[in-house]
């Protein structure tokens, strides 16, 4: 262990040394610009307090500068930063963003991208700023007199240019994340540099294909549900940070800056409050003034920010696909929308006949009347439209325990508040009493801004009571955020989590077929036998109860399990259909008079005497030898516990594969990233010396009598520009490694709608013809469908690929009781594999099948 740790430390030290020497040799333009920025700042005395008056006059960009003919400022504005913090941020961005991009796209292209986005972005931003005055005179005036400097303009610009050549995953995340941040800064901050940065990003997006070209994998936006959740989480996080930014910044001028009123109280000053209280110490205005001062403390400020922090926690849950996070986010944004409306109504009603503290009907800008409502409204719509991305439930009892914890904390804090208030009752501006403290306690849990509408019951007048008054709510919200975050870290196995846990225990205890682990996947519902020893995983689609594989349970109870489930399904008005089942189950259903057809071919490798020798394994040996020559090794990992550097690469590889198809990732009996995020599923990855992942396979356990006897291949992805025979190498390596562990076999799983032609299969078809003409029609229809889908998903090519390993072929079947329901069954199967095909994707699918989109 010590040797491994030392080796890892040595490798990290070497990487740090390489990174230290990387700047000059690998990114001369970006590092040179960084040095120039610091030198220019030092020479003009701009490092500490920002650009000097001389720099602002002659080198900063602005509408006034262009009106005076100083057009060179479009370029020179990128050579200074706004203060020491700006210089430090610019340094970090150059080292972490600009330099790696230059190394990737080349110094010449980098220089062109930086210069063009800096100049054109500044010109576009100033043009937009000049037009703003037509919409909002106040904001337009601020932009007109403002100046802008900062290298973040060209840094953002080159990032957007480089995104054109990024892999699909990072192109999508980079663009969504950067634009969400820049739009937030522009709408809330609203300064000229915010507008110019956003304009530079737009320019970089447009110029990217011309400067660096497009990604070889195209710009298709099809992605997995997992990635869709990540993008929604980014939007929610940006919406949460915007009002906080407005609240914390004293100089925000953007159209959404009015949302700072959701955080801030009435801007009383100490002198004003003293004057009011001197005139009438018991008057209402005096108490309101004291309340206003109390709202400006550290505790109230933190409590006012807690809704945004809570939304950031929910964004993490959305990133994980959690159903509770979606429900909570919808509720929170609905509340924020209602509060923003109520806030406006109250302020508007109170402002009639006098100057509004917020904004009133006398404002000439209609859009400022509705802007506070737009942010929660837009995010609420986004959440409602993306509901399907969030179906991950926590294990049984998780949220019951969370609510009990929060109730206990609320009760405990209430007790502390009442007892502490009684002990320090002289520290309030009036005698509270037990009833008064109990009535006031709920208000201590509410962000103070919403209490502006209420007359304060009590006000603290000592250090002890101030601590109780200001920090009780902060403690509760911190506990709530931590408790909710903890629920997102709980492992989740399916939408029916409680039943999934029960099914897992039965599967591990009794065993099942090589595909039985698929019964634990999300999307399945469960029927348990009356004696609790068996279960069937199924999903209801279009009136068909479509199962996933064989029933799990004692083999001697198989017939009874099939019969009981069929009666349960029929009693519920569903047509029972067992899909992807073994020959053993087909024999049972045949004896019951059911019909059946073969739908796939499972490929199995027996490990007892497996050795990749002889001519027939030439391709496999070549892959293994090439991997050894190229320094690529095979490593077992558990996806939930693997380092982020590994899991992020696996995610990127998978998203590239999905985007390349231009179609949603198929489900049902085909796993994806959600299915490998399981502590009992093992992943074998092909990695090189630089820890680059070239390919990944996942292996599901196969149980028999409480122990693992084999493993089934599920997830297969390889890097498009990496080690090409990665799959051959990984499957061969997995087989040999699992053989050493004592496994009996590995299943390479089945390829849907693909099978090996054989005399037996032909005879089986003739038998089906005699039994049911409709069965034969469906068999032939599935065969045609497999052929037409081949250009898109390549199931038959996959089956041919697996033949390299000389497997044993095991037919997989579909059995059903009512042949007249075959049209419904066919529809159910199609919707199970592709439940979310949009109109555009359907058009692409048809074009690809007929050869129009190769």
TrEMBL record:
One of its GO terms (cellular component) is plasma membrane. It is found in: Cell membrane. Residues 507-813 form the Phosphatidylglycerol lysyltransferase C-terminal domain. Coiled coil: none annotated. Keywords: Cell membrane, Membrane, Transmembrane, Transmembrane helix. Its main location: membrane. Pfam families: LPG_synthase_C (PF09924). PANTHER family: PHOSPHATIDYLGLYCEROL LYSYLTRANSFERASE. This is Lysylphosphatidylglycerol synthetase, C-terminal domain, DUF2156 family. It comes from Rhodococcus maanshanensis.
């Amino acid at each position: 262990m010590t040797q491994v740790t030392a080796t890892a430390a040595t490798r990290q030290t070497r990487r740090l040394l390489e990174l230290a020497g990387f700047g000059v040799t690998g990114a001369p333009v970006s590092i040179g610009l960084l040095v120039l920025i610091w030198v220019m700042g030092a020479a003009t005395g701009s490092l500490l307090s920002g650009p000097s008056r001389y720099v602002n006059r002659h080198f900063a960009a602005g509408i006034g500068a262009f009106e005076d003919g100083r057009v060179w400022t479009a370029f020179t504005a990128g050579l200074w930063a706004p203060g020491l913090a700006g210089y430090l941020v610019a340094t970090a961005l150059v080292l972490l963003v600009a330099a790696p991009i230059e190394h990737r796209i080349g110094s010449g292209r980098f220089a062109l991208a930086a210069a063009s986005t800096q100049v054109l972005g500044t010109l576009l931003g100033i043009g937009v700023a000049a037009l703003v005055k037509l919409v909002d005179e106040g904001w337009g005036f601020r932009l007109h007199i403002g100046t802008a400097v900062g290298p973040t303009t060209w840094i953002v610009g080159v990032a957007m240019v480089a995104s054109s050549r990024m892999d699909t995953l990072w192109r999508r995340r980079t663009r969504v994340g950067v634009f969400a941040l820049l739009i937030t800064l522009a709408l809330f901050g609203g300064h000229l540099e915010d507008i110019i940065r956003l304009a530079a990003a737009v320019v970089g997006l447009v110029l990217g294909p011309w400067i660096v070209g497009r990604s070889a994998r195209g710009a298709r936006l099809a992605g997995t549900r997992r990635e869709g959740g990540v993008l929604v989480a980014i939007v929610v996080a940006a919406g949460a940070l915007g009002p906080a930014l407005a609240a914390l910044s004293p100089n925000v001028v953007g159209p959404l800056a009015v949302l700072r009123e959701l955080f801030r109280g009435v801007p009383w000053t100490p002198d004003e409050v003293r004057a009011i209280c001197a005139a009438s110490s018991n008057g209402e205005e005096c108490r309101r003034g004291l309340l206003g001062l109390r709202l400006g403390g550290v505790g109230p400020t933190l409590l006012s920010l807690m809704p945004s922090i809570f939304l950031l926690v929910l964004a993490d849950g959305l990133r994980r696909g959690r159903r509770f996070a979606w429900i909570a986010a919808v509720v929170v944004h609905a509340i924020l929308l209602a509060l923003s409306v109520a806030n406006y109504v109250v302020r508007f009603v109170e402002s009639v006949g006098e100057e509004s503290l917020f904004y009133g009907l006398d404002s000439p800008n209609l859009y400022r009347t509705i802007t506070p409502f737009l942010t929660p409204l837009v995010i609420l719509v986004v959440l409602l439209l993306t509901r399907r991305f969030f179906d991950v439930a926590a294990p049984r009892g998780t949220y019951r325990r969370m609510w009990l914890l929060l109730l206990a904390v609320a009760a405990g804090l209430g007790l502390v508040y009442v007892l502490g208030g009684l002990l320090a009752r002289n520290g309030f501006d009036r005698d509270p009493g037990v009833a008064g403290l109990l009535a006031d306690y709920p208000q201590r849990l509410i962000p103070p801004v919403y209490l502006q509408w209420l007359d304060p019951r009590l006000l603290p007048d000592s250090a002890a009571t101030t601590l109780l008054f200001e920090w009780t709510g902060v403690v509760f919200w911190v506990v709530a955020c931590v408790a909710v975050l903890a629920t997102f870290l709980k492992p989740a196995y399916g939408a029916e989590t409680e039943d999934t846990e029960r099914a897992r225990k039965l599967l591990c205890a009794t065993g099942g077929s090589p595909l039985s682990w698929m019964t634990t996947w999300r999307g399945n519902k469960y029927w348990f036998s009356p004696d609790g020893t068996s279960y069937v995983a199924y999903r209801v689609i279009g009136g068909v109860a479509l199962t996933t594989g064989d029933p799990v349970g004692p083999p001697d109870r198989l017939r009874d399990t099939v019969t009981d489930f069929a009666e349960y399904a029929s009693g519920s008005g569903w047509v029972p259909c067992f899909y992807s089942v073994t020959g053993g189950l087909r024999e049972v259903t045949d004896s019951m008079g059911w019909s059946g057809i073969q739908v796939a071919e499972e490929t199995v490798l027996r490990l007892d005497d497996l050795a990749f020798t002889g001519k027939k394994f030439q391709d496999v040996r070549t892959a293994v030898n090439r991997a050894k020559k190229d320094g690529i090794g095979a490593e077992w990992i558990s996806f939930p516990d693997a380092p982020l550097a590994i899991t992020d690469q696996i995610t990127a590889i998978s998203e590239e594969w999905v985007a390349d198809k231009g179609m949603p990732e198929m489900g049902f009996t085909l796993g994806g990233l959600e299915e490998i995020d399981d502590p009992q599923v093992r992943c074998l990855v092909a990695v090189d010396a630089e820890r680059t992942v070239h390919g990944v396979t996942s292996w599901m356990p196969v149980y028999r009598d409480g122990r693992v006897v084999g493993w089934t291949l599920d997830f297969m992805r390889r890097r498009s520009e990496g080690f090409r025979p990665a799959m051959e190498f990984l499957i061969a390596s997995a087989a040999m490694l699992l053989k050493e562990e004592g496994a009996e076999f590995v299943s390479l799983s089945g390829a849907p709608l693909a099978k090996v032609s054989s005399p037996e299969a032909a005879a089986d078809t003739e038998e089906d013809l005699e039994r049911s003409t409709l069965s034969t029609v469906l068999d032939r229809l599935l065969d045609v469908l497999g052929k037409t889908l081949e250009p898109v998903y390549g199931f038959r090519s996959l089956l041919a690929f697996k033949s390299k390993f000389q497997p044993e072929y095991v037919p997989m079947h579909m059995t059903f009781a009512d042949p007249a329901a075959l049209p419904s069954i066919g529809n159910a199967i199609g919707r199970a594999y592709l439940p979310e095909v949009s109109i555009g994707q359907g058009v692409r699918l048809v074009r690809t099948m007929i050869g129009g989109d190769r």
